[in-house]
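Q: Hi! Curious about what Lysophospholipase looks like structurally. Here's the sequence.
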Amino acid sequence: MKREFFYPSADGETDIHAVEWIPEGEVKAVLQISHGMVEYADRYDAFAAWLAQRGWYVTGNDHLGHGKSVTSEEKYGFFHVPDGNACVIRDIHALRERTGKKYPGVPYFMLGHSMGSFLLRQYLLRYGRGLAGAVIMGTGYKGKPILLAGQLLCRLFAAVKGWGYRSRLIDSLGLGGYNRKFEPCESSRAWVTSDLEMREKYEGDPLCSFTFTVNGYFQMFEGMKQIAGRKAALKVPRTLPVLFISGAQDPVGGFGKDVEKVYRMYRDAGIKDVSLKLCENDRHEVLNEQDRQQVYEYIWSWMEERR
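A: Let's find out. The predicted structure is below.
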């Protein structure tokens, strides 16, 4: 059974929209999903329903500025001033606390995709204890100098246009190069998935077609600074099982190179159970790729072994 609900955001203004997929009978384990940039929790419906059929309770929220956690058109791609990234992290934790009270003692896993993977990596620094495992999907790496430069550009635009401004320049710097390897092609989102049907569905979804505000980019860069560098990985609980999974053809992860870099950072930090899976022919959204059934089964098997 699938159900929608709302709970208060840490921003003090917004009601956060969330979805839960409830299995019939005993709940074997919990998976909380943190979605990516310019999408929403219910895009994971197929995977979540598949897990629910296997006795897993799945839940996820629409982050600030996304999905149904939006109070007006102007709020799409907008987090909060001045601490939007921190609010998003607290909203994720609020959902975990709410769910943990419903299912005490049940193994609790978290999965973050793309921007959600950066959020999950931040989350683990502070709240990683008590989790049965973390699945970091479609992640990447940016150093602090690049992130600081991006924030400076955001500040310049905000000083003139305001934090709600949507800059084509910043958006092109953030996403513009991802499609380069796949050109010539008919779609500017060829990098997302090689599955044409899934890509057309994505491109036709109004909740996946807005442009981030300069506030949204600034806050995302702020969070990414927290996980840049090797010292950040030292704050992750060493007993926490972690799976890195990405498409080998995903430009967000540097076609595997940046994912391998973050994996090595975790491994070198002494995390005892850290795994890496690069799906050979897949692009950014491995859960929406042509081999998604195999991806479902791989993630489920990894979690099952650790619950």
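A: A fun detail: The chain has one domain: 2-304.
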